[in-house]
Structure formats: structure tokens, C-alpha cells
Design a protein that fits this description.
The complex is a heterodimer of chains A (416) and B (439).
Chain A: H1 20-30, E1 37-38, H2 55-66, H3 81-92, H4 97-100, E2 104-110, H5 111-126, E3 137-141, H6 146-153, E4 159-163, E5 165-166, E6 171-172, H7 174-183, E7 189-193, H8 206-218, E8 222-227, H9 237-240, H10 242-249, E9 254-259, E10 271-277, H11 281-296, H12 305-315, H13 317-348, H14 355-359, E11 364-366, H15 371-379, E12 383-384, E13 390-392, H16 401-414
Parallel strand pairs in A: 1-12, 3-4, 3-7, 7-8, 8-9
Antiparallel strand pairs in A: 2-10, 5-6, 9-10, 11-13
Chain B: H1 43-53, E1 60-61, H2 78-88, H3 104-115, H4 120-123, E2 127-133, H5 134-149, E3 160-164, H6 170-176, E4 182-186, E5 188-189, E6 194-195, H7 197-206, E7 212-216, H8 229-241, E8 245-250, H9 260-272, E9 277-282, H10 284-287, E10 294-300, H11 307-319, H12 328-337, H13 340-371, H14 379-382, E11 387-389, H15 394-404, E12 406-407, E13 413-415, H16 424-436
Parallel strand pairs in B: 1-12, 3-4, 3-7, 7-8, 8-9
Antiparallel strand pairs in B: 2-10, 5-6, 9-10, 11-13
Helix pairs in contact in B: 2-12, 3-12, 5-6, 5-11, 7-8, 13-16, 15-16
The chains are: A alpha/beta (416), B alpha/beta (439).
């Protein structure tokens, strides 16, 4: 054997920082405290703290496994056609004029992340010039921490925050947001959360969205929606897609990265769709041809299982109704926990106002706890939440809510 | 190069873009994507469209990527079908987010599968595997890892050497990862209808130090012509001397020769020589899991002290690509690889495919001999795996599709499994005509 003594080509590689939310879950797992609560990671849990397979999903999975007529080939590069069209329809609405005009297309992707990445790669290559890596990309402050990485890895060099969360008033910093829109260079890309903003749970109202849209149209800013919680936020698909549909009706060309991980509970099937709303069919065709090229060099052919489940469900009226019901079940449980948490904090006389807990929407809530208080919660009370004060409402159950409320009360009163 | 193509302020221009409709609320009249070029149709899509539009009753498509059975359907392994049903009925499996690195049991088994359980590199903890979306995902992740982290001090960005010919998407995957400097090394000799290792070595000799060389462990796509152990010994010697980095493709372990060890031998050999390497594995073909995209990126390092850092960086890259892989297919593979009874059953089923492909090759060669086709057709049976490079030239390939409705890849390669007893005679006749007609 010839000894190979040359240096490793990877000898200078530094350790990447751990992802905060995964580290939190890892710490939680190692904790043996009997009353520990995990309010970190973003997945739905039942009142028994278990993951939930939606009944409609179980039903459809069985149908699929029994279906001997299904072919076992590679899916087309752009994905399962019936899934793509149904997914775009669920975002834009049954009566979407844009769909009727044949200027809407979908690209099946690996979850919401995959959809964002394909969209980002496309924009870097073909938006605002050719291969213009200098186009500014704006993400909310704060935002889901992966937004930055996706656009940076897609080649964008200039990723900036836009004002969003006002910590003092625990709500939307609308004037800061609008100001950033006015000052952004023309053609900048803005990543907007369609609903249930992650991590703050704070969404603009309809009037506020109108103001945002007005400036974006006037200043030729590009709209890229991240829609990971449609249906999950309010329990209504239409309500949760209002912003997207409004922008489309205002004539914007835009991208929507959709995830079906949470509203279908299909976390491990990686089901996503990038909806493209173009000016007309001719543009759409050219755009999709480039999307196909990008997909071909990323994963080539997407996995079929999740798309089959979602496609079948969305395209069958009975199954669709059943799914909406299942989604409402999840949304209602979250709303109940919000109500109860606020009520308990008020009953305990915890200092401060707690209205934001019921005003915020979706899986997450920005409690307003500061880092010291968060540390207290984790170390002393074994209640795990993000350093930002973000909690996952799904981690609350009727069994642990008293303990959590009590813990928050102690954190706020004992730790400054 | 950042010209601003798009000028917004022409409110009176309602005809703007090609066929553009007037905006609903007086906003832009010109699409922001006006200047998006129509992508050239990828050659496979073009070919398949032509085939689909062809109305001839005897038409045959021999350019597909899936492994087909005797009836022309995608091959479904009975064991895989059974396991899928079992897994879907398992109440203990929950719909959680998988790790970004993939299913741990899968990556462990897949990595062992390629390197062999007794690999020194494994025992010294210098190896990691990351579940990817198929072989493409593995190559893309590997390319991103190299682009970001290959010799950080030197800001490496190529060159990458690919075989001539190779899978037509390989170059674009590296380009998508930001590596534009792509070269090709001599591989398939059309005259000899075989690999020409002398010319291959001569090309690699010219490659700058620190080049990445993509090599196929077995079942070379698209020629089916593989390197022998002696060839590998020479190539590895050269690569170590010239500090070239191997990125090995292992697309169909088990499906090439029917021997798991033999199909993966080059990977095992490189590792045993102390080389660092990347290996892109796919389980789509050998498990019939095309709809599941099951791949693995295997990385062998020189020192175990580097493992954590390099894996963490690969993990970071995954999280911005697809975040986490889908688990269905990986579960099936992990179940088979970790259960000796299933493994034996699976090997039997795979052997059946291998034998069928070998038989088709022999029968095709025999038919051509009986028809009196000119030339030597031994290369048909020398080659292994799903693909076969016939040696037909462009004109002959076009004759086949246009006049005989038999569709091969433009480079004369074809998917052997698409040939069966119903179409063998017609195909052989067609090839014979292509060779003997005045073109």
C-alpha cells in the first residue's frame, strides 16, 4: 500500500455553527426533568404532545399503496402535474383570473426550502438583468433564519433586513417597514411571509398590506411570498391566502414558495410547490423552461409520495373537505392554547400586557421574554424556547399549560 | 455583467412585452421576465417528445433512464413493493422532520454498502454519508462542498474533469454549483468500441494539480464500458502523484455485475490507498425507487479530526438546498441493507435483472451476427449494466429514429433493458439496415 501523506484538501475547514433550534431540541432530549416542555421546534403536536398523522393523509396513503395502476417511473422534472396545478390553485383560489388566463405555473419542490431555493436561483439568473448577483434581497427583521442562507447560496451578494418587529410595542413596525420600501433600490426583491409570520406570529392587516402593495408597485419591487402555513394560521385557506391573492389581483408578477409540511403534517415527505404568476402565458413558458433547467441540476426528479398524497387530496372534493376539517382541528387547538395561556397569565397577575399572545397568529408567538428570562426558563424551569423569546404554541397542552404559565410568571417577576 | 434590462416607467406603453396584456391596475406593462431566454430543450426531453409524437406502430424508445422489465414497464422489485406496504402500515413511524443529514440508519448502511464493512477508513472514523435526493442531489452537494471548501486558502474553483462522453447533466450540475471550469478526458474510443486507457492517462497527466476527476465505479453512463482493475491501478497511481481528487459515481451498485463488491471495488480500492474521495451513490435503479430519489454522498477524509467540521459544512449546504430529504425510499433501503434475509432476497431479485440484461446483450449480438451485420459486436457483451454504446454514428442514429422509429441517444448509446422479446428482432433488423443502407 502506497502511503498517502499529502495534506487533506479539507484541512482548513472550520466547524459550522450549530443551528439554534436543533441544538435546543437536542438539549431538551438530554434533559431528564419530569416536567420539561419543548416550545422550540416548529412542528404540530397533539394535546398528548404527539405528532399527528392527519386522518385524511392516512386514508390517502392507503389508497396509494393499494393502487396497482400507479407507475413507478421518475416523476417529470417539474413534478407531478396534478399536484402542481392543485397546489397553485389552493394558493390563488378557485376563481383565480390569473389561472384562467393561463399565466400561472407550478414547480414541485422539496418542501418550502426547495421552493425558495429554486425561486432564488431563478431570480439570480434571470431577474433584473442576467446573473445580477447585486440585486438587493430584503428579508424581514427578524425572519426564519434559513432565508438568508438560501438566497446567499443562490448567489445573491446583498441581503438586507427590512424593519418588521417592533419589540417595544410588541407588534408590527409598519412605518419602519414602509420606510424601507420607499428607500429600497428599485427592483429589489422582498421576501414576504404570506401569513403566520415566523418567528413573530405578527401579520400585517389587510389595510397594511394595501399600503405595502402600493409602494411595491410604485417602486417596482419584486414580491416573493413564503407561504408555509396556509390554513394552519386561521383555520381558513382563503383568509390565510388573502395577501397573496390581493397582490395577484393588483397585477404583480410574483413567486410563492409553498410548503405542505405543516398543513398536511407531511414533514418527512418534503412536499412544496413554487407558484409562478407571470404577465402572460408566453412569459410563463419561458420561465418554466428555465426552472426545469435549474431543477435538473439540483435534484433532477422530485420524490413522488408526498405530491401524490397532496395532489389526490386537493383534487377530490370529499378528500379536500376532509383535509380542510383536519387543518381546522390543528388551527383550533393552537387558538385554544393561545386563549388559555393569555387567560392564565392574566389570572396570575403576571406584569405586562399579554394581548399579543392572542393577537399573533399561527404556530409561533414572540412572548417578549428577554434572553435572561429565556435562560431562566430553560435552566431553572426546563421549559425550552428560543433565545428570541419565540415559543411554538403546539408545544403547549392542557397538561403542561399551567406549569408553563407559572414558569413565565416567575421569569418575568424574578428576572430582569 | 449586470445590465439593467428592464425599464419600468412607460405607463402609456400598453403593448410592452411579447403579447403582454395590460396590467389590471396600471402597474408595469412589461414583464419583469421579458428577457428570460427560452431554455434549450434538454436533449432527452426533445427525443422523448419526438417519440411520443411518432405514430408508427413499431416505434421503440431505447433512450430512457429507468430499468424496464420484459413487458416494457418500470421494473418493480417484489420485495420493495412488499416493504413499502409494510412501512406504510407501521404505526410506530411518525411524521417528524428527518435530520438534514437524512435517516441515520440509511446513511450508515449505504456508506458501509459502498466501502465494505471492514473498510479501514470506516473503522478509523474518517467517513461520513449524507442522504441526498438521488444521484443528482449527491453530485450537486459534492460539487457545492468542493466549491466552498476545497482548499480554502487557494480559493479553488476547478477544473473538474468529466469523461467523454458522460451523462449530459453532469457538467451543468457543476456549473450550477459555481464551477465553470469543466474539461473532458478521453474515455470512449469509438473506433475500438472500448475504453482507451492510454489516452485517458495522457489527458489526466495534463490536468493541473488539485483538479477534481469524476470517474465511474461501474456501469458507466452512457457507454456501459467500464475500467478494469489494472486500469484503476494505473489511474490511481497517476492521481496520487499529481494530487488529483477523485469524485466517484456509483449509480447502480449490484445492478452492474450482480456482485456488490465488484461494482463498488474502485471506491474501496481508492479508500484503501489512503485517498480522500467523494462518492455519489444512487439507489433508484437497483431498488426500483425512481419516484423516491434515494441517494447518498459519501466522503472519505484523510483524518478523523476533520470529520465533524466537514460534515457540519456539508450539513449547512444541505439546509439551503432542500433542508432535509424525504424518508420513504431511504427507509426501504435501510430495511433491506440491515436485514440479512431481505438482503439475500434483494440480491436474488437484482441478479434476475442483471441476467436479463446480459441475455439481451447476447441475443442482440447473436441476431446481428445472423443478419450478417458488418463489424465486430463483442463490445455489446463486454459492457455491463443498463447502458450500452453501440458505436453507431450520428447519421446511423438519425436513420434509426427517422426511418425505423427506433430511438437511441444521439451518441449511439441505448438502455438495454428497453429491449425485449417482442422488439428484439425489429431492433436488430433496424441496426442492420442502419449499418448497410447507403446513407
Amino acid at each position: 500500500m502506497i502511503p498517502c501523506i499529502a495534506m487533506s484538501i479539507f484541512s482548513e475547514v472550520p466547524q459550522a455553527p450549530p443551528v439554534a433550534v436543533f441544538k435546543l431540541t437536542a438539549d431538551f432530549r438530554e434533559d431528564s426533568h419530569p416536567q420539561k416542555v419543548n416550545l422550540g421546534v416548529g412542528a404540530y403536536r397533539t394535546d398528548d404532545s404527539q405528532p399527528w398523522v392527519l386522518p385524511v393523509v392516512k386514508k390517502v396513503e392507503r389508497l396509494i399503496v393499494e393502487d396497482s395502476s400507479l407507475n413507478h417511473e421518475y416523476l417529470p422534472i417539474l413534478g407531478l402535474p396534478e399536484f402542481r396545478s392543485a397546489a397553485s390553485k389552493v394558493a390563488l383560489g378557485e376563481d383565480s383570473a390569473a389561472i384562467k388566463d393561463n399565466r400561472v405555473g407550478g414547480v414541485q419542490a422539496l418542501g418550502g426550502t426547495g421552493a425558495l431555493r429554486i425561486g432564488a436561483e431563478f431570480l439570480r439568473r434571470w431577474y433584473n438583468g442576467v446573473n445580477n448577483t447585486a440585486t438587493p434581497v430584503y428579508v424581514s427583521a427578524p425572519t426564519w433564519e434559513n432565508h438568508n442562507a438560501v438566497f446567499a447560496d443562490a448567489g445573491f451578494k446583498d441581503i438586507r433586513p427590512y424593519h418588521y418587529w417592533d419589540a417595544a410595542k410588541r407588534g408590527l413596525d409598519l412605518s419602519g417597514f414602509l420606510d424601507d420600501l420607499e428607500k429600497a433600490p428599485e427592483h429589489s426583491i422582498f421576501v414576504l411571509h404570506a401569513c403566520a409570520h415566523n418567528p413573530t406570529g405578527t401579520d400585517p392587516s389587510q389595510d397594511e398590506w394595501k399600503k405595502i402593495a402600493e409602494i411595491m408597485k410604485r417602486r417596482n419591487l419584486f414580491v416573493f411570498f413564503d407561504s408555509a402555513y396556509q390554513g394552519f394560521a386561521s383555520g381558513s385557506l382563503e383568509k390565510d391566502a388573502w395577501a397573496i391573492r390581493f397582490f395577484v389581483s393588483e397585477g404583480f408578477e410574483l413567486l410563492v414558495a409553498q410548503s405542505f409540511s405543516k398543513n398536511f403534517g407531511l414533514y418527512n415527505e418534503r412536499v412544496g410547490n413554487l407558484t409562478v404568476v407571470a404577465r402572460d402565458n408566453e412569459n410563463l413558458t419561458r420561465i418554466l423552461s428555465q426552472m426545469e433547467k435549474i431543477v435538473r441540476t439540483t435534484w433532477s426528479n422530485p420524490p413522488s409520495q408526498g405530491a401524490r398524497i397532496v395532489g389526490k387530496t386537493l383534487n377530490c372534493p370529499e378528500l379536500f373537505a376532509e383535509w380542510k376539517d383536519n387543518v381546522k382541528t390543528m388551527a383550533d387547538r393552537v387558538l385554544l392554547m393561545r386563549d388559555q395561556l393569555k387567560a392564565k397569565l392574566q389570572a396570575l397577575g403576571t406584569p405586562g400586557t399579554w394581548d399579543h399572545i392572542t393577537q399573533q397568529i399561527g404556530m409561533f408567538s414572540f412572548t417578549g421574554l428577554n434572553p435572561k428570562q429565556v435562560e431562566f426558563m430553560i435552566k431553572e424551569k426546563h421549559v425550552y424556547l428560543m433565545a428570541s423569546g419565540r415559543i411554538n404554541m403546539c408545544g403547549l397542552t392542557t397538561k403542561n399549560i399551567d406549569y408553563v404559565a407559572q414558569s413565565i410568571h416567575e421569569a418575568v417577576t424574578k428576572v430582569q | 455583467m449586470c445590465r439593467i434590462w428592464f425599464r419600468m416607467s412607460q405607463p402609456s406603453d400598453s403593448t410592452g412585452a411579447k403579447g403582454g396584456e395590460q396590467s389590471a391596475e396600471g402597474g408595469s406593462h412589461v414583464s419583469v421576465f421579458l428577457n428570460t431566454h427560452t431554455a434549450a430543450l434538454n436533449p432527452e426531453t426533445k427525443l422523448f417528445s419526438a417519440f411520443t409524437a411518432d405514430t408508427h406502430t413499431s416505434k421503440v424508445y431505447l433512450a430512457g433512464r429507468e430499468c424496464l422489465n420484459e413487458e416494457g414497464q418500470t421494473f418493480v422489485l417484489p420485495l420493495v413493493g412488499k416493504l413499502k406496504k409494510q412501512i406504510s402500515a407501521d404505526p410506530t413511524l411518525c411524521p417528524e422532520y428527518p435530520s438534514s443529514l437524512g435517516l441515520a440508519e440509511f446513511t450508515k448502511r449505504a456508506t458501509e454498502f459502498a466501502l465494505g464493512k471492514n473498510s479501514l477508513a470506516l473503522m478509523e472514523n474518517r467517513v461520513f454519508g449524507i442522504q441526498t435526493i438521488g444521484c443528482t442531489g449527491a453530485v450537486r452537494l459534492g460539487a457545492e462542498l468542493l466549491k466552498h471548501w476545497y482548499n480554502t486558502r487557494a480559493a479553488w474553483c476547478g477544473p473538474v474533469y468529466l469523461s467523454s462522453p458522460c451523462d449530459d447533466s453532469l457538467a451543468s450540475i457543476f456549473e450550477a454549483a459555481g464551477i465553470q471550469d469543466i474539461h473532458y478526458y478521453f474515455y470512449w474510443d469509438a473506433k475500438q468500441r472500448d475504453v482507451c486507457v492510454e489516452k485517458l492517462l495522457a489527458d489526466l497527466e495534463q490536468a493541473p494539480e488539485q483538479s477534481v476527476v469524476v470517474l465511474s465505479a461501474s456501469a458507466h453512463c452512457p457507454t456501459g464500458a467500464d475500467l478494469s482493475e489494472q486500469h484503476w491501478a494505473l489511474i490511481i497511481q497517476l492521481m496520487m502523484r499529481r494530487r488529483l481528487f477523485p469524485f466517484i459515481l456509483l449509480p447502480v451498485q449490484g445492478l452492474c455485475c450482480g456482485d456488490l463488491q465488484r461494482d463498488a471495488w474502485p471506491v474501496q480500492h481508492c479508500a484503501s490507498q489512503g485517498m480522500e474521495l467523494l462518492c455519489a451513490q444512487s439507489f433508484s435503479h437497483c431498488f426500483g425507487l425512481y419516484g423516491d430519489g434515494v441517494g447518498n454522498l459519501l466522503c472519505v477524509l484523510k483524518q478523523s479530526s476533520l470529520l465533524s467540521a466537514v460534515q457540519s459544512q456539508a450539513d449547512r449546504l444541505v439546509r439551503a438546498l432542500w433542508a432535509r430529504p424525504s424518508v420513504g425510499g431511504a427507509r426501504v433501503v435501510a430495511t433491506v441493507l440491515s436485514n440479512p434475509a431481505y438482503l439475500t432476497k434483494w440480491q436474488e431479485e437484482v441478479k434476475h435483472i442483471v441476467e436479463r440484461c446480459m441475455l439481451i446483450r447476447e441475443r442482440l449480438r447473436e441476431r446481428l451476427r445472423l443478419l450478417g451485420s458488418p463489424g465486430c459486436w463483442d463490445h455489446l457483451i463486454k459492457q455491463r449494466g443498463l447502458y450500452c454504446c453501440t458505436g453507431l454514428n450520428g447519421q446511423q442514429v438519425e436513420f434509426l429514429s427517422k426511418r425505423r422509429h427506433v430511438y437511441l441517444l444521439p451518441n449511439g448509446c441505448l438502455n438495454v433493458s428497453a429491449i425485449n422479446s417482442s422488439n428484439l428482432d425489429y431492433i436488430a433488423e433496424s441496426i442492420h439496415l442502419a449499418l448497410t443502407s447507403a446513407l
